[in-house]
Amino acid sequence: MNTNVLGVINLIHESDELESLTAGRCLATVPFGARYRLIDFTLSSMVNSGISKVAVFAHTKYRSLMDHLGSGKHWDLHHRQSGLFMLPPITDDVNEVQRGDLFHFYQHRDYFTRSSMDYVVITRSHMVCNIDFAPIIAQHKESRADITVICKEQSELMHGKARKVQVNADGRITAMQDHYGRMTGDLVSMEMYVMRKELLLELVETSLAQGQDHLVRHAIMSRLDVLNIQSYMYEGYLGVVNTVSSYYQNSMQLLNPGVWRNLFNEPGPIYTKVKDEPPARYTTGAQTSNSIIANGCIIEGTVENSILFRGVHVRKGAVVRNSIVMQNGDIGENSNVNCVILDKDVSIVEGRELRGAELSPFLAMKRKVI
Amino acid sequence: MGGKRMVAMLLAGGEGKRLGVLTKDLAKPAVHFGGKYRIIDFTLSNCAHSGIDTVGVLTQYQPLVLNGYLGIGSPWGLDRRDGGMAILPPYMKQKGGMWYKGTANAIYQNMGFIDRFDPEYVLVISGDHIYKMDYELMLQKHEERGADVTIACIEVDWKEASRFGIMHVDDEGWITDFEEKPKVPSSNLASMGIYIFSWSVLQKYLIQDEANRLSGNDFGKDVIPAMLQDNVKLNSYTFNGYWKDVGTLESLWEANMDLLSDEPALDLNDSSWRIYSVNPNRPAQFIAPGAVINDSLITEGSIVEGQVNRSVLFHGVDVGEGSLIQESVIMPNVRIGKDVKIYRTIIGEGTIIADGVTLGSPESKSVAVIGNDEYIATSQSLQEVE
After folding, report:
1. Does the distance separating the beta carbons of B300 and A294 come in below 8 Å?
2. Most C-beta atoms within 10 A of its C-beta, which of A62, A268, B186, B246?
3. ∠ at Cα B374 (B369, B375), nearest 5°?
4. Binding residues of B for alpha-D-glucose 1-phosphate
5. How do residues A232-243 score in pLDDT, each as one tens digit?
């Protein structure tokens, strides 16, 4: 058990190019994988790794986040011995909300100092994976690294944006660059960092004093020489979801049964806020193939290569292909959609046709009627 | 704060003998139903939707699965500061203890529990029926009519009438006669086993019934007839919705099949009357290329590569390539290999069916059953039930 490790999910300035999918919500609560929200993956991974106290640094548009996480009971974090802590910005001056994560960590430093934990695991929400932190924490302790960064060898990011890293033969990180940098190589940072809590607090104070505002871009990237920053190579499935294109393509990856099994079940199950939806109902004449269907759906038409979230109704004669339909979508009779992403509660009226392209799917806003 | 208006007592100790292997290790109310539920979910959800916040669940036969499932009642909104859910098995008293001898005795033994809430009314229900009903409306009728007892009733098929408590009512709806499971039924108005009692009246009769050594301590056989004899005001409450006693394999199968019509009599998708349950929290189901699904319910965590017709699949069921599932009920975590054919069969939780096996035949008229955690490697035309 990692009872000595504090989980930190850092949502401050999380890079987000998801257009209307994040118009009313933060990146962390973008629906993904037919019934989850992006944050479920990192949060469940922490819980499955034995981390029982998790702080969520909320930043902007976090109503949906509070609604989703609630008391933390769906992740078993609502006990006397465990806890989910929502830490939104503390500031009187609205301009300060836009400051970097170091500033917000500093504002909440009491949370860290009060905790008896010695280590922290800091993650973001857009790295979709199912990961066991236990061996990483073990490696971190054994290697006597100052910081361990979880990395992944991945040449195809499907338009997701991630920092690049380079490591030497000993696994020490020698270079790190923002996604727009020119550095070559297939190694990306999963934006997951393990370090001692003391070091984090020290980095927060010294960096802020030097006029620096950002944990990774400033505090870590400027100290690659002075700190022993080690890499840990993650082998499982990773989806970097921070653009519309990467959202669509990573969603479609789930239709590969190997990815489905790995991402949702191994090494531990991914938890989410449960809803009391009945089983999916397929009527006579329904045709479904190569799709992921959530509970509560009613399928009377045709669904192919698609992902349907909870409570979607595909009416008679309707055809849904290569699409993602979020919660309570209503696909009218004899309508036809292809390569679209429909946000929650979107209705397609009878007989309508809607077509996007695989590289630029059509994206419909929440509650839109088309 | 005064007493509670109404406390519910849910009888959940039934052995469910006629469900055979399905109730080998669990009580009937805990049997899986409808793709993701257990039978008791329907009654508990009714309580939740009827504004009932205090429910005593009386357990006796094989309670472990049920106890684990119910927990502190959170899925049904029964994790309350005042009241909430209490699981009530038989317990030792100063003068010794005994098993629940009958339905009335089970309530008698827990009179202390009910008195703690000082209720005006007690609702007695059982955990083995599938239906959606607002007990609040029934209570309103009970109050309006100034009844001492109200019994919910429904018209059943004459052929089936002898399985139920059968009653006669007068023009105003007062019950004039009540007969438990008559051989030759003289009416088809059946008791649904749902009673609202004014607590003071029930208390008196429970004590009286317990003192009567000849009594079987059963509501239908003893308490209600005794009340009728004394001219207690017994009111009937006619229910017109879907109601199914799932006490036999045949009726359990039928009730599952009833959910499959395009306009099911019991609508699970009705958002105003959700059936609450412990959610399995599994990934959304994966329907592989080449799968064919018609007229079926399928639950999260399942992977379907074959063909499913008119069937109910619970969570975590794998159906391999080339397999056919027809008119069957497949309980959680069953793994069905490749090229398997299954007709009209109920398959218990966790069972594995090896590649190429055939169970039942397309001509099967009756329903077969396979228990939990079995491994079936050879084809069989299963022993047919009833």
Report:
1. yes
2. B246
3. 115
4. 100, 165, 180-181, 191
5. 999 999 999 999
The pLDDT of residue A82 is above 90: no
Judged on CB neighbours under 10 Å (0-12, 13-18, 19+), A55 is buried
Report CA B98 to chain centroid distance, whole Å.
25
A246 touches B at CB < 8 Å? no
Among residues A57, A60, A82, A84, which one has the least CA distance to residue A70?
A: A84
Contact between chains at A257 and B303 (C-beta distance less than 8 A)? yes
To the nearest whole angstrom, how far is the Cα of A13 from the nearest Cα of chain B?
29
Backbone angles phi, psi at B125, to 5 degrees: -135, 170
Q: In angstroms, rounded to a whole number, what is the distance separating the alpha carbons of residues B55 and B123?
A: 9
Q: How many CB atoms lie within 10 A of CB A214?
A: 17
The residue assigned the tokens 């509070």 is A66
The strand pair at A164-167 and A287-289 is best described as unpaired
Please give the structure tokens belonging to residue B266.
């019991």
Question: Using alpha carbons only, what angle is made at residue B251 by residues B150 and B89, rounded to the nearest 5 degrees?
Answer: 55
Closest CB from B286, B295, B299 relative to A279: B299
A356 touching chain B per CB within 8 A: no
> Which value, in Å, is the radius of gyration of the alpha carbons in chain B?
22
SS3 B226: helix
Q: What beta strand segments (E) does B119-159 contain? A: 121-126, 129-131, 149-155
CB–CB contact A289 B290 (8 Å): yes
Q: How far apart are CA A92 and CA B59, in angstroms?
A: 57
Give the start-end residues of each E strand in B303-344.
303-304, 307-309, 312-313, 318-319, 324-326, 329-330, 335-336, 341-343
Q: Does A33 touch chain B (CB under 8 A)?
A: yes
C-alpha to C-alpha distance for B135 and A155, rounded to whole angstroms: 61
Residue B386 confidence (pLDDT): 40
Give B220-237 pLDDT, tens digit per residue: 999 999 999 999 999 999
Distance, CA of B103 to CA of B78 (rounded, Å): 23
Interface predicted TM-score of the whole assembly (ipTM), two decimals: 0.91
Q: Which residues of chain B have pLDDT under 50?
A: 384-386
| CB interface of A with B, residues 117-156, below 8 Å | none
The helix (H) or strand (E) run that includes residue B116 is none
Q: How far apart are CA A331 and CA A303, in angstroms?
A: 11
> What is the distance between the alpha carbons of residues A284 and A290, in angstroms, rounded to a whole number?
18
* DSSP string of B164-185, one letter each residue: SEEEEE-TTSBEEEEEES-SS-
Q: Could you say which of A281, A282, A292 has the minimum Cβ distance to residue B284?
A: A292
d(CA A266, CA A235): 12
